[in-house]
Amino acid sequence: MVRASLDRHAPLHRRGQDVLADRAGLHRWPAPQRRPRRGDGDVPARARLSGHRQPPGHRQGSVTLGSRGAGRRAVAVGGGTGLPRVLSALLALGFDVAAVVTMADDGGSSGLLRRELGILPPGDVRNCLVALAAEPGGTLARVFGYRFAQGEGLAGHALGNLVIAALADVCGGFPEAVAETERLLGCRGQVLPSTLDDVLLHALDSDGREVRGQAAVARSASPVARVYLEPASPGAYPPVLDVLRQADLVVVGPGSLYTSIIPNFLVGGVADALRACSGTRVYVCNVANQRGETSGMDAAGHVKALMAHGLAGALDAVVVHDCPGHAVPEGVEPVCAGAESLARIRALGCEVVGADLADADGLHHSVDALMRVLAEVDRVVHR
Questions:
Q1: Strand ranges (DSSP E) for the chain?
Q2: CB of 182 within 8 A of CB of 144?
Q3: How far apart are CA 165 and CA 52, in angstroms?
Q4: Residues in Cβ contact with 116 at an 8 Å cutoff, skipping those fewer than 6 apart
Q5: In 163-311, where do the E strands start and end?
Q6: Over 70: is that where the pLDDT of 86 sits?
Q7: Do the Cβ atoms of 310 and 275 come closer than 8 Å?
Q8: HSE toward the beta carbon, residue 134, CA cutoff 13 A
Q9: Which of 166, 172, 201, 285 sees the fewest Cβ atoms within 10 Å?
């Protein structure tokens, strides 16, 4: 396993130039120069990571923040709280950024709006829009994240969710509402729903019981064995397939494995588009397991679950949290990334990169650490 050396104190430099997008045709990147696709033949050989852990303090190479991704395209796929952190890291590296977001959410404010208004769930989309805002800490972005604590009919709703719901009605559809919100917030990237279909997540747990609905799956008392969507294989939002095929770097995760990440790849054509991508495709494994949903799973188990749900042959590298002295809060189960687990990941055809990824809370990924490890993976694997 490669051990990425991460300097947490290096300064961040963000791009000042917005992502290029043809707003007349929603969510399109400029036409790329022709690059070889997998299956075309004569695809340039990809440099392989060394497959062993480097001594502490070893540096794989310098990272020039703000220039590593300049003029190149990155896509982050997932949902929940992990996706905005990856977007922030990719922006800091200078990539033109797109987020592909699950539409399976049916809990909280998003679930209420789905049931009452019949719209797609706006919550995970809103989180990504705020992360991509011209001023993520500015008043407008903070207001979008404001959640009402009281008020009949308002308690529990995020204001940004209500704004997106209103825009979907005023502008004529959910993609149009997202595009208008991007303009309002001055977003430095684009946010794409993985599907425009109304989907419901189902799961079978390790005891063979069926669980219905994303929120219920997330609360499952037993580990999840398999998930699927109703309807089966819904249609992908076409721009999603385009950005995945054109990407120079695709980052899958981190996030809830079965309820935020995998549902994107159960949408028709999405897994195949990732497989066809000639860029670097990396999965960032979670720091900690989620009680019930992934209890007892090691890093290899996470990768195996992805491949069992359509991603076989679609990942080049896996990033794992590698910090033996890492302290986690009481009652939290870290995702094991021991030697045997890493060997099983390599046997699945993926390179492994380890780094200290945890934020101060011990549960989530540090944006700074993500930035540096993604730059390292991109530098070594991408050609």
A1: 2-3, 73-78, 96-101, 189-193, 200-205, 210-212, 224-230, 249-252, 280-284, 317-321, 351-355
A2: no
A3: 49
A4: none
A5: 189-193, 200-205, 210-212, 224-230, 249-252, 280-284
A6: yes
A7: no
A8: 11
A9: 172
Which are the contacts of 248, defined by CB distance < 8 A and separation ≥ 6?
69, 72, 73, 74, 95, 279, 280, 378, 382
Q: What is the pTM of this model?
A: 0.84
Cα angle at 228 between 370 and 315, to 5 degrees? Answer: 35
C-beta separation of 225 from 231 below 8 A: no
Question: Would you state the pLDDT for residue 26?
Answer: 41
Q: Is the pLDDT of residue 363 over 50?
A: yes
Structure tokens at 284: 């960032």
SS3 347: helix
Q: What are the tokens at 314?
A: 């679609």
Structure tokens that stand for 326 in this block: 């890492």
Q: Is the CB of residue 168 less than 8 Å from the CB of residue 119? A: yes
In 3D, which of 104, 106, 70, 76 has the Cα closest to residue 88? 76
Asked whether the predicted pLDDT for residue 359 surpasses 60, the reply is yes
Q: Domain 2-103+229-381: which topology?
A: Rossmann fold (3.40.50)
Which candidate, 23, 91, 21, places its Cα nearest to that of 374? 91
Cβ density class 8-33: b for 16+ within 10 Å, e for less: eeeeeeebeeebebeeeebbbbeeee
Compute the distance between CA of residue 130 and CA of residue 145 in angstroms, rounded to an integer.
8
